[in-house]
């Protein structure tokens, strides 16, 4: 089976992913010694 389409949801219309992105930023910054207060 070949892929025929890809859907990108860049503005949160299909899935509200803002909270997931926020947590990903906090986790990534924590690995580098940051605390995520200013992102």
Automatic annotation (TrEMBL):
What UniProt keywords apply to this chain's record, in alphabetical order?
A: Hydrolase, Metal-binding
Q: Which InterPro entries match?
A: HAD-like_sf, HAD_sf, PGP-like_dom2
Question: Which domain of life does the protein's organism represent?
Answer: Bacteria
What EC number is given for this enzyme? 3.1.3.-
Q: What class of enzyme is it?
A: hydrolase
Whether rRNA-binding counts among this entry's keywords is no
- Which Gene Ontology MF annotations are present? hydrolase activity; metal ion binding
- The molecule here is called HAD hydrolase family IA
Organism source for this protein?
Klebsiella pneumoniae
Give the lineage: Bacteria, Pseudomonadati, Pseudomonadota, Gammaproteobacteria, Enterobacterales
Write the gene name.
yniC_3
């Amino acid at each position: 089976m070949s892929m025929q389409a890809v859907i990108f949801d860049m503005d949160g219309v299909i899935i509200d992913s803002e909270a997931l992105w926020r947590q990903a930023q906090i986790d990534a910054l924590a690995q580098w010694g940051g605390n995520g207060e200013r992102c």
